[in-house]
Every structure is written in C-alpha cells, then in structure tokens.
Amino acid sequence: MHLFDEGHFWGMHLIWWIIWIIFIVWIFGSPYKIPGQRSKRETPLDILKKRYANGDITKEEFEEKRKTLGVMDNK
Q1: What mean pLDDT value characterizes the chain?
Q2: CA separation for the pair 69, 58 (Å, rounded)
Q3: pLDDT value, residue 73
Q4: In this structure, are residues 14 and 20 in contact, taking their beta carbons and an 8 Å threshold?
Q5: Predicted confidence (pLDDT) per residue in 24-50, tens digit
Q6: Cβ distance 49 to 55 under 8 Å?
Q7: Distance (Å, rounded) from C-alpha 50 to C-alpha 45?
Q8: Which 8-state DSSP code applies to residue 34?
C-alpha cells in the first residue's frame, strides 16, 4: 500500500497548506494590537505637540514648555 493511492495523501496535505497560509496571513495582517506587544513610548515632546495640535495650549505655552524641556529648534 502506497501513501499516494487515490490521492488521499495529497488532498490532506493541500488542506494543511491552506490552513497554515490562512493562519499566517491572519497573524501578520491583523490590524489589532497583539497583547504583550511592545509599543513605542511617547516622549514628553510628543505629548506636548499633541496638546498643542488639539488646542489645549497656546503657541506661547508650547514654546515655553518646549524650552523648559530643553528642546532646540530643528530649523
């Protein structure tokens, strides 16, 4: 008796390849965050920029706080 009789081996083999491909695409294509995954930490300057962009602080407050953080102009 051979493993390849009547195509049973190849049929099951093909199904497993399809299952693995779907599983891998699902893992890497998932838009959701994976629990335990490291995320980039926000710097104080990033937080300050968000507050300024949201209108929580004025330009003068932004400049004052940026100088307090010791950040130089990138111009």
Answers
A1: 79
A2: 16
A3: 58
A4: no
A5: 988 888 776 666 666 677 888 899 999
A6: no
A7: 9
A8: P
